# Entry
Amino acid sequence: MSKRILVAAHNHPSLHPGGTEIFAHDLFRAYQREGHEALFLGATNQIHREARPGTSFQSIGSAGDEILLWSGHFDRFFMSQIDLYGVVPDIAELLREFRPDVVHLHHLLLLGAEFPHIVRRTLPDCRIVMTLHDYYPICHHDGLMVRTGSKELCHQASPDRCHACFKDIPLDRFALRERHLKALLSTVDHFVSPSAFLRDRFVRWGLDEDRISVIPNGIPHRNAGARRELLQDGRPVFGYFGNLNPWKGVTVLLDAARQLLADGLDFELRVHGGAPFQKEAFLDEINRRFSETAESVQSRGPYRREDIGDLVAAVDCTIVPSVWWENAPLVIQEAQAQGRPVIASNIGGMAEMIEHGVNGLTVPPNDSRALAAVMRRILEQPNLLRQYSENARRPDDIDTTARRYLKRMETVQVQA
# Structure
């Protein structure tokens, strides 16, 4: 039976091509291909769009099935809308007009933690499903669960530990934040996590384990161009794909490359990605490292999402050196879909996707020597690439993932 599904995310991939926005939009299109009426709602702010007086909504695309919610007044600490009098009536009107059977929420940023409550109050019989993509409700540090001072991984949040990271914020406000978010999330009928690791984190935080299913992310089927054979150029070509920021581990990767070059090893490393909204100090640090490794490391800049399949297929091995608990990096799925081995940090959802010595290699995070050691292993035993390639774990296509979500939606009980 055909459903009306509202897919809501904290931005639109054409404005901010992050993994969550890309997956949410891919799933939206897959719902339509499955015969359902779907509407995509992406929230944005002054970083990407200016406000238009008189309405909270802006158009994007030409088909009329995608809109933007302008959210310029947002409290990032409580993940809440400040201008509720301006936003709530518009959201309620949209809900009454579209009348979705299911609201599939992908984030609280910009949309606001109140969003599920607005849905429930406006459409009491609507099912509310939320995919958990990161740790924002748990961690005020941009959802990273990394300590602000020592940069060590945080294994469990608490008001005391959070206050230790943000000493200018009183401890009782962290306790209030936790109660606030848990109360508003209680309106969600069912949660989905792309990894068992992320699910376990939210269960430890206090969500009911019976209300969280694990459904791995899927990716669109891609027809890559002329596929490059492994080791076609005689020397291994490594690749990095993603934004350049302190948490993606690109400095660790460049340090590892510098160590290998100092030992006279021959390889190529292609770094694909831009560094939007980064501080000058970080940009200077990155540029310095690029200059020190220029003989073998290429900074290739940002790329279009539709090119990712060809770019991944053009390297022998993809490296994902993130230093935080990544949940389900799309780049790992893209690489495995192309039969490309992956070197990844052995934490979070990454450790579920790559098994050491089977379909790639894993290393401790933030350890350039360890990363250099496994890259050296590939350089000295290049036939390992073929072995790992044969064991690649190809992800589901996005249409299969959509059918899994739809099946789960059929069993979701609306919260009383």
